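In this supplementary section we document a worked example of the pipeline. Step one takes a protein sequence of length 91 as its only input; no multiple sequence alignment statistics are reported here. Step two produces a three-dimensional model, which step three serialises into structure tokens for compact storage. The input and output of this example are shown verbatim.
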Amino acid sequence: MGQGFVLPEQLPERLARTNVEMHGQEGAAWLGRLPGVVAGCARRWSLGLGPPLPGLSINYAAPGVRADGAGGEESIATSHQSAVDSGAGLC
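The serialised model returned by step three reads:
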């Protein structure tokens, strides 16, 4: 796996601010879990990940390269329950 995951202090400020503003403590908790979720998904899909995409405000996304060299992208849905439920099978 390439770069692994992004530490919480490296998350885009707008992403962190928007999730806390929209979802309060649930959003803050999601942000705290996010590095582990990103790392787990990257391992599961054999992705080497780059830094988060610019302009993120709700969901997390980062470019990646699969083990076979093909390009890919990892996207993690926000903490909102319907998004969490719909994205559960993605990772």
